[in-house]
Amino acid sequence: MNAVSYTTADIEELYDRYADMLFRIAYAELLKREDAEDAVQEVFFKYLRRPVSFREREHEKAWFIRVTVNVCHDMYRKRKKRDYTPIDEVTHIPDAGEDGIGIISNVLSMPEKFKTVILLYYFEDMSVEEIGESLGLSKSAVKMRLARGREYLKNDLGEGAEK
Q1: Where do the H-state alpha helices sit in 6-138?
Q2: Average pLDDT for residues 22-48, to the nearest whole number?
Q3: I want to staple 26 with a disulfide (CB 3.0 to 4.6 A). Which of 10, 39, 108, 142 is the partner?
Q4: How far from the centroid of its chain's Cα atoms is residue 19's Cα?
Q5: What is the spatial distance between Cα 163 and Cα 152, in angstroms, rounded to a whole number?
Q6: Is the pTM for the entire model greater than 0.90?
Q7: Residue 70 to residue 116: CA distance in whole angstroms
Q8: How far apart are CA 89 and CA 144, in angstroms?
Q9: Measured distance CA(84)–CA(32) in Å, rounded
Q10: Whole-angstrom Cα distance, residue 73 to residue 156?
């Protein structure tokens, strides 16, 4: 692999293009603003330490998403004590309107394998193919996780409505 050098403008463009999306993914995984910010910072450090050239912008986007998810998993594993902030104490959920707060809290409480694909599909407007490429999953695996995630949300939201 050839070494790639970047100008400050190149780095700023990459950051502007991906930082918000990566923050939302990291926040959904880690549930803490500071941890999500640290994860995004780590992703960009990894990119700068070992610059990679991509054939297409979609490959670049997939790389950033995959590395973000991996960094979040690493951070999660390194925690000695899993101290999460209860969702009702969260004061800021990115891009959530008043009507969407209930759904977002349910999405954030989903099992990780469903949560990630639901977030990427509905909140980041990625296609099934893009999600599969980003997460290293087949198209059918992404579709299955989406279907099971929707069913999970349907059951979860249905129980909340009955209470």
Answers
A1: 8-30, 33-49, 57-78, 101-108, 112-118, 128-135
A2: 93
A3: 39
A4: 11
A5: 17
A6: no
A7: 12
A8: 32
A9: 8
A10: 25
Smallest Cα–Cα separation from 119: which of 91, 142, 139? Answer: 142
Q: In this structure, are residues 40 and 68 in contact, taking their beta carbons and an 8 Å threshold?
A: yes
Tokens of 95: 């891009």
* Helix, strand, or coil (residue 67): helix
Cβ–Cβ contacts within 10 Å for residue 13, how many?
12
For 20, 79, 121, the CA distances from 26, given in Å and listed in that order, are: 10, 15, 15
Q: What is the dihedral of CA 157, 158, 160, 163, to 10 degrees?
A: 170
Looking up tokens 């997460």, which residue turns up? 135
Neighbouring C-beta atoms of residue 128, cutoff 10 Å: 19
Owner of token pair 């050098």: 5
What are the tens digits of pLDDT across the range 79-129?
Answer: 644 555 554 554 444 444 454 556 777 888 888 889 889 988 888 888 999
Determine the 3-state secondary structure of 141 from DSSP. Answer: helix
Q: Which of 43, 28, 25 is nearest to 124 (CA)?
A: 25
